[in-house]
Amino acid sequence: MKIRKSVESERKEILNIHNQAFGEDKDPEIAKLVDDLLNDITATPILSLVAIENERVIGHILYTKATITQTELAISAQILAPLAIHPDEQKKGIGEKLINEGIRQLRDHGTELVFVLGHPGYYPRCGFSPAGEKGFEAPYPIPEEHAAAWMVQALNGNALETANGKVQCSDILNEPQHWRE
Ligand SMILES: CC(C)(COP(=O)(O)OP(=O)(O)OC[C@H]1O[C@@H](n2cnc3c(N)ncnc32)[C@H](O)[C@@H]1OP(=O)(O)O)[C@@H](O)C(=O)NCCC(=O)NCCS
Questions:
Q1: 20 to 30 A from 5, CA-CA: which of 82, 101, 106, 167?
Q2: From the CB of 118, is ligand 1 less than 6 Å away?
Q3: pTM given for the model
Q4: Long-range CB contact pairs, 71-77, < 8 A, 24+
Q5: Does 94 sit in the ligand 1 pocket, CB within 6 Å?
Q6: Distance 48 CA to ligand 1 centre (A)
Q7: Ligand 1, residues 18, 97, 122: which to mutate, most atoms within 8 A of Cβ?
Q8: Which atom of ligand 1 has the smallest separation from the CA of 92?
Q9: Tens digit of pLDDT for each residue in 115-145?
């Protein structure tokens, strides 16, 4: 299995992975979200990585630009969404490898903070911890019972200790339907 940046000619394969992982019947919105994000100029810089095995895409992760508003500081931030592994390939550590490779590349590029809205049982093993208690608000309010799902990780600098504010995403990811349960 190898991980590398995705190429445009793989887009259909990537969308298929999301449909299979999330269930096309249950959540066809996710593949559309990925498709739209890959076209969204306000999402750049985008980091789109694929996991490849036997020349097949078996996993995909997307990191897109985030902005911290209500702060004087210019903070370089990204948000992880979404992540999908082919159902036959789950629980083999591929998700974790995709997350960590993305984080390594973002760190090398000077990204300071990475956010994610995801399962609090999964992302902390890759270095994420609750963002709300650090003073970083999500684009839309997260219900109290799901507060732990809104997470952040610092890659460079000390913004996590010195700043706070509200996170805004790209035009597409800022749409309210992506923040509902
Ligand atoms: C969630 C997902 C990306 C994890 O990728 P993966 O390659 O299967 O995960 P890894 O092998 O790195 O890690 C497996 C561990 O994560 C746990 N895990 C997987 N999905 C989980 C979830 N939704 N919530 C909590 N834990 C989860 C597994 O139980 C396993 O735990 P263990 O190591 O203690 O046994 C993958 O299962 C997937 O594509 N699921 C469907 C789409 C989805 O829910 N994406 C996440 C959006 S936030």
A1: 167
A2: yes
A3: 0.95
A4: 71/163, 71/164, 71/165, 73/159, 73/162, 73/163, 75/112, 75/113, 75/159, 75/163, 75/165, 76/110, 76/111, 76/112, 76/113, 76/156, 77/111, 77/112, 77/113, 77/114, 77/115, 77/167
A5: yes
A6: 19
A7: 122
A8: 11
A9: 999 999 999 999 999 999 999 999 999 999 9
